[in-house]
Structure formats: structure tokens, C-alpha cells
């Protein structure tokens, strides 16, 4: 996915939802929070959005821009409407959101996860694709280990799960060497 595609997703969702403010959750939030994200982090053809003001429009957006839509067939990517509750995010994440303003219409904003918040959330999910994603962020020095550890400690999960994630990070079990 590209920044231009993220802009198209936001423009299209804004028209349908009659909302100009969206949360961008999931891996593609990296497009709005990092100037030049690693290419390996941009392979997803899905962007997870959530209308911040008009939540009820999520179903309409999903129907028009989702995986079975004409939008997907035309553009090769789709929008999934998700709520923030779907992700396990560190305490204080809302205050660290990064605004991504659509160039053609500056009034439309996608609020993207700060990279360390995104990485902590991905590690909490524990899927291999998420671990690979975090590995790429660290390999390209988009995130720092010490900051990531702090965000992991701020996850609203049981202490034993936090310890497991940090232990895996310290023992380099996340795959290859995460340096």
C-alpha cells in the first residue's frame, strides 16, 4: 500500500461516512506516522479505519469499500472498518496519535498509531506476520528497543503476558535478530 492509496481510502470513506476524522489502525497506520516506511511493512492490501465521529457509518463504509466491493476490484486494496477495541494498545495511545492529512482535502484526517504503539500492539497479537512487521521496523530503525519495552509494559494485559513478550524481545526470539 502507498500513501496515495491511504489518501484514496480516507477520501472515499469520508464521502460515505460523512465524517472527516478517522482512526487508522493496523499495519497501514505506519504510512501516516513514518516519512519513509520499510517496503516490507507495506504489503497489506487492507487498511483498517474507524470513523471517529460517525461510528454508525462503519457498515456503509465496509459495504462500499470492503473486500467484496467494486472499490477493491478497481483499486486492488480494501477498507475494513474496525473499532479500537479490536487491538490491544498501550495506555496513553490516543495522546500519541499522529495526524495524516489528505493532501487534496486537508480537512480529512487519518489519525495513525505512533510506531512504538503499533509495534507493541502487533507483539500483543503474537501472529508471525506481526512479529515479522516489528522485526522490519526495528531493522530499519523506525522504532527503538527501549521505547518499545516501555510501551509493552503499558499494554493492558496480564503481567505474565507482558513478561513473556519482553523476554522474547530480549532473547531475540522474535525472529532473526531484532537490533
Task: Kindly list the characteristics that best describe this protein.
about 45% helix; about 15% strand; about 180 residues; alpha/beta; single chain; 5 strands; disordered C terminus; five-stranded mixed beta sheet
Beta-strand level of the residues, as a percent range?
5-15%
Task: Work out the count of structural domains.
Answer: 2
How would you characterize the largest beta sheet?
Answer: 5 strands, mixed
Count of strand segments: 5
What is the chain-wise order of helices and strands?
Answer: HEHEHHEEEHHHH
Describe this structure as you would to a colleague.
The structure is a single chain. Helix 5 runs antiparallel to helix 6. The longest helix is centred in the first third of the chain and has 15 residues. The protein contains eight helices and five strands. The C terminus is likely disordered. The protein has 179 residues and is of the alpha/beta class. 43% of the residues lie in helices and 13% in strands. The chain has two domains: 112 residues, no CATH class; 55 residues, no CATH class.
